[in-house]
Batch of 4 targets.
Target 1
Amino acid sequence: MPVLLFVCYVLVELAAFVWAVNTIGALWTIVLLFAGTFVGLVLVRSQWRSVRAGFQRVAQGEESPGGAVANGALVGLGAGLMFVPGLVTSVLGLLLLLPPTRMLLRPLVVLAATRRFGPLTVATARYSSTNGSEVIDGEVIDGEVIDGGLVDPLDQRRLDPPPAGTGWGTGHA
């Protein structure tokens, strides 16, 4: 299967290159490749900053984690496509790096990830002492404690720690 995908990729890129050479000429096709690479690098840099700012907003509780992760995945995929040689992959990479395209694809990525991995519930919180000087960052993970043990809410397995002296923190297996 990977060999078939690679052969399809080569054929599509070769057909696109031949079409571009016949349409605009060899020199302009090469200029187009270099210009697309330059624009892609500029977009990768600016959009990665946007993704990083989105992750910071998630950490502050201002944005949903699913959208930020989907945005990061789309920018990462677009950046990866920019490094794969060819006109078609460069155009696809540039499209994924443009915010309007990502805005249209983000719900589909979140839906696909939710179907593949199930819902993920993570919340971040900031707590401060009564005088407001000490801040403790932490994460709250969805789960239930039943009879002193943690139960995974998705598959109802117990996540109890091992008996004393035989597991965590003791250096023994």
Note: The helical segments are 2-24, 26-59, 65-83, 87-97, 99-117.
Target 2
Amino acid sequence: MGTARIRTGAATGTPAGQPRGGWTSTAWSPLLLAAVASVGLVLAALAVAVDGPVAVVLVGVAVVVALAGLQISRVRVRVDAAGLSVRFGPWGWPRQTVPIARIAEAEVVDVHPSQWGGIGYRVQPRQQVTAVVLRSGPGLLVRRRDGRRLVLTIRDPQTGAGVLNGLVRAEAAGQPPVPPG
């Protein structure tokens, strides 16, 4: 689930109907939220069933699990002339950025949670790839110039890849970014 959009119009400082070269997409995982809520409820129920320090530890673990799950269940991606920005959770933290000069290309790939070990934030250091997997389906693959890759399961990755590739080409040519249109 999520949204994707390209900003247009006077508010962006560009003529009406012309994208400003910025694109955003937000995605979240109801499945991940349900799983985290279930674990939190089980831990809370166990905390009620026991006394003393064990109950306090269980409540603490339930809070940590809930906050961590909330943080990785939502991702907001922005592509603009500065590059790629990925923000996690409702507070937009942590934030991961990749400057446009460090991006080689972007493409759309088919993503299945089973190929990544499930839903969530995944790192495969030997393959130099990081993935934010919130669902199955098309995702955005960003190849960096240093060989590292970032995979994001977001809404409308085709548009994101197109905008990002246009900005990368403009950067490589030494031109100011020209929005697709």
Note: Residues 7-19 have pLDDT under 50 and may be disordered.
Target 3
Amino acid sequence: MIDMYLAVIVCIIGGVLFFILLRGGILPRAKRFPEREELNPDEFYQKYYETSGLPKDQVIVILNIIAYELEMPAGLIRPTDRFAEELAAEPGFEFDDGVCGLAMELDSLLGQKGSNVQTSEILTVDDFVRCMIEHGPVEPQCYNTPILPVVAFAVVVFIVLVYLLKEVKGAKFILAMIFTILCFIVVKIRGAGKWVWHRCC
């Protein structure tokens, strides 16, 4: 019975590690802009939208949404960035990428408003910002879940695994790996974290 538990746990660990390594190699768009200065919200708005007439709070909310979906710091995003170029998904991952999520979110908003605008017409970050504001207002979004139930779940899972593996050879190493993975999952479930200017806009 223990051997079965061990086989299942090893498979889960292997799958999660493979997923983490695979995703980790394609998602950090920030690496594409090593020379780009990271701006804070005020600097971004003053530099690109101060004379636009667009409301500051809405611009920042939308930039935070983009940053969250693309998993990159909001301060590195620029209005001229193109979703099909500078911010494009890696080949083969188009349907599991934040750009696709943004397109779906915009398409949903346009459908609710009965707009004739097509998402294919939205080429840049600036296009997205202006379109969202025009068809908005856009509600602030909170990307975090309460930390207590998340941690409680992780602790319960860890305790159960400690019990199941107490007589398994090499259990300490396996438990250390599981603990690391659970920590990673807690951070991811908590939301955007450092990737956005404000976790709750």
Note: Residues 34-134 form a domain with the Non-ribosomal Peptide Synthetase Peptidyl Carrier Protein; Chain A fold (CATH 1.10.1200).
Target 4
Amino acid sequence: MYKKALWIGVALLVIGIFVVSAEIRSQQITDSITTQKVRTHKRMLNLEIKQKKLTATMVDNSSTRALSKWLANGPKTIKLNDFERMEKVGDLGENFPSNDTSITTKAGDLILYQGNKFVLYYAPNSWNFTRLGKINDINAKQLKELIGTESVTVTLSID
């Protein structure tokens, strides 16, 4: 009886070790994926909307590098039109490399759409987009109040 209980205890211990090991490996994979998703570009993107200055942390991809190079020549002003009560969209007047992946946006996300449209999201949407970055230090309510329901002008620049 004692040997049987001992074997059951050992078996449970081994199963527990496997479960913990699998959880640790799963967390490492998740951390690796998360780290890749938030790998940021060295430059911050400056946005000015209705005389309010905002910054955004840019992700590191060929799209943001090309955008940074374009903005190195000076600030660009873009008219953003409201679309579907979830985003403001404006034509960049240039084509940039796309790095589309399946994304569910959140308020403050900055997206490159079709390689030539700058999109500022203020509500969720799921689609294949190129992520540019995320506006810092503003919540969804504040962002909606700032951009309103009509067209808005944004000036983009980098330091």
Note: The CA atoms of residues 108 and 135 lie 5 Å apart.
